[in-house]
Amino acid sequence: xxxxxxxxxxxxxxxxxxxxxxxxxxxxxxxxxxxxxxxxxxxxxxxxxxxxxxxxxxxxxxxxxxxxxxxxxxxxxxxxxxxxxxxxxxxxxxxxxxxxxxxxxxxxxxxxxxxxxxxxxxxxxxxxxxxxxxxxxxxxxxxxxxxxxxxxxxxxxxxxxxxxxxxxxxxxxxxxxxxxxxxxxxxxxxxxxxxxxxxxxxxxxxxx
Length: 208
Prior knowledge:
The protein is an alpha+beta fold.
C-alpha cells in the first residue's frame, strides 16, 4: 500500500539504515502494511535490496533481506525522527561478497587482528595481503608471496575457514555478530554468498 504514513515509514526506515551503514550506494524498500496497522505502529513485513553496503566494517556487494512483522513508535515517525522499534524482530536473507569486497574489509583496522591470526596459523606469515575467489575456493595470500586455499563451511550457525590439504591445521572460526545465524555458504564463480537470519533489537533502530 501507499499513502502519507507509509511514505513517512519508508523515510524513517531509510534514515535508520543510512545511520547504521557507513556506506550505502543503492537501496530499494518494499514495505507491506495496512492503513489501520500503520496507525497502530504495526508493519506486516518488508523486503530490502541494497548494493554497495558497508555494515559493521564489512563491505558487501549485494544484500537481500526479508523481515518478520515490525512494531514501531508512530509518534516519532510523524515527527520525522529515526525509526524507533517497540520490539525486536527477525530478518532472513543473503549477502554477497566479491573478492574486492573481501579485500576492502581486510583493509579495515577492525579485521586486522583476525587477518594477522589466520596469516600466522595458515601461512606462517606476519600479515595477510589479499583474498581471491577462484574454482569455488577462497585463496589467502600473504605479503611475502605465500598462499593457501580454503573451503568455507557453516557449522552451528557460524562460518569456518577450513584449509585444504592441511592435516595439521584445524578449521578457524570467523568472528560474527552473535545475533546472526548462518544457514549456508556458497562460492559461485567470483562471488561468495552467505544466507541466514538475524535478530534486530529494539535499540538498534534508535542509534548508530
